[in-house]
Amino acid sequence: MAKQKEIPEGIQDQAAPKRRQKAITAEEFQQRAAAMQTQGREGAHLPRINMAFTPDNYDFVKIVGAIHGMSMTRFTNWIVEQYRLEHMETYERAKALVADMSKE
Questions:
Q1: Whole-model pTM?
Q2: What is the 3-state secondary structure (H, E, C) of 30-61?
């Protein structure tokens, strides 16, 4: 039987079969969700919506997002976040109103 050559440790690690990524804890989910880094993690899917954009808005998100080094999703979330922070008082009142309406 031919003797196998020993594979150096660094190369052996790279050649190892890929393993399924482990599920994450609720705390890790919150951290990853805030950083938008959930791709491929079991149980860490962000809520999703299907949106249609006007051609002008689509180009804006695509081009300006790229200039800022962001994906279209990340840039759109950033825009919404900025608007939400600027209108936090209105948002809080709206949440309270919806909560009151659901009690009835």
A1: 0.55
A2: HHHHHHCCCCCCCCCCCCCCCCCCCHHHHHHH
| 13-23 pLDDT per residue, tens | 444 455 555 66
75 contacts: CB under 8 Å, gap ≥ 6: 61, 64, 65, 68
Q: Look up residue 78 and give its amino acid.
A: W
Residues 6+ apart with CB under 8 A from 42: 20, 21, 22, 23, 24
Distance CA 43, CA 47 (A): 12
CA distance 91 to 83: 10
Residues 6+ apart with CB under 8 A from 24: 32, 41, 42, 43, 44
Count of CB atoms within 10 A of residue 29's CB?
Answer: 17
